[in-house]
Design goal:
9% of the residues lie in helices and 69% in strands. The chain is mainly beta. It has one domain: Porin (Beta Barrel), CATH 2.40.160. An 8-stranded antiparallel beta barrel has the order 1-2-3-4-5-7-8-9. The radius of gyration is 39 Å and the shape is rod-shaped.
């Protein structure tokens, strides 16, 4: 009886052996894959240099001694370069400064009159105003969105090189063309957007308004000893330009 019981136990243990062995076999270790590194966010901090080209429109007005005013405008092209530096002082905010300069071909001619203040005689004339240079030094404040886009506003000082002349013929039949050239100082404000399309390159599109105030001008013709005074001239310019910048 005892042998029978031991045999049964041994049989049970033997029979259960393979099952127990299967239960305690090692479990394969889980396989982990390393996540790809996140691309660093673009930083606008640094300096840049670039070029731009676009269209310009002047809106000007002259007022004579009698208080009569004449408005006129002209359209043209502008283009040259810019240089600036920016600092990203918060996750989305950027402050900077920029200087830009451009050659322009703004020019307007329209008929007018010239009045001799001594004799009171008035003769027809041709008034011409041209701007061949436009420059500014501004501060910029921008906000970055969607990683590589920057919208900004700017404001600061502006300069333009201006030439004015008035061609007419005197009652004595003498043709004269007194003129004057000057560099005028004013102010500018504008807005735009930048897009960093490559690690060191960005494209920019912007609008800027320039105002050079009201001023008088003294036009002279030394050959004919003629002096013409423009009592009030208001000169404003609107510019829309596109450009590219290299960041370093």
């Amino acid at each position: 009886m005892k042998k029978h019981i031991l045999g049964s136990i041994a049989f049970v243990a033997f029979a259960a052996g393979p099952a127990l062995a299967a239960d305690i076999s090692p479990v394969p270790a889980p396989v982990y894959t390393k996540a790809p590194p996140l691309a660093p966010l673009y930083s606008w901090t640094g300096c840049y240099v670039g070029g731009h080209i676009g269209g310009v429109v002047s809106e000007d007005k002259t007022t004579n001694v009698l208080g009569n005013s004449v408005g006129f405008s002209s359209t043209g092209f502008a283009g040259c370069g810019q240089i600036g530096c920016e600092y990203q002082f918060a996750p989305g905010w950027i402050a900077g400064v920029e200087g830009r300069a451009a050659w322009t071909n703004l020019k307007n001619s329209h008929p007018g009159t010239v009045r001799n203040l001594v004799t009171g005689v008035t003769v027809p004339s041709q008034f011409t105003l041209s701007n061949d240079f436009l420059a500014s030094a501004t501060a910029r404040l921008g906000y970055s969105f969607a990683d590589r886009w920057l919208v900004f506003a700017r404001g600061g000082a502006a300069w333009t090189h201006e030439k004015t002349d008035v061609a007419f013929t005197t009652l004595g039949g003498i043709a004269v063309d007194p003129s004057a050239t000057m560099t005028r100082t004013g102010w500018t404000v504008g807005t735009g957007v930048d897009w960093a399309f490559a690690p060191h390159w960005s494209a920019t599109l912007e609008y800027n308004y320039y105002d050079f105030g009201n001023h008088g001008a003294t036009l002279t013709s030394t050959a004919n000893n003629v002096v013409v005074t423009v009592f009030n001239l208001k000169d404003t310019i609107n510019a829309v330009t596109a450009g590219v910048n290299y960041h370093f």
